[in-house]
Specification:
Layout (H helix, E strand, L loop, with lengths): L9 H15 L1 H7 L6 H27 L13
């Protein structure tokens, strides 16, 4: 992974590096590898994630079709 530092702006380069690492999933992988996860636990976690994803997709589809109300919109209170 490579990030260029322009005009001695290290803060901007660090932000760019963090964004790249986040996009690549490095932080998620580091968190997962902190401790050993048994294969059965891994399968259970992945199954739960798949269920959560499918429910979210179904909810969004129902909102698009008008079967469910959409997300509440925030109004600026002044």
């Amino acid at each position: 992974m490579k990030v260029d530092v322009r005009d001695n702006n290290v803060d901007q380069a660090l932000r760019a590096l963090k964004k790249k690492l986040q996009r690549e999933g490095v932080f998620r992988e580091m968190k997962a590898r902190r401790a050993y996860e048994k294969p059965s636990e891994r399968r259970a976690r992945e199954k739960q994630q798949a269920i959560r994803r499918s429910r979210k997709l179904a909810r969004k589809q129902a909102q698009r079709e008008g079967l469910l109300p959409g997300p509440k919109r925030r109004t600026a209170s002044r």
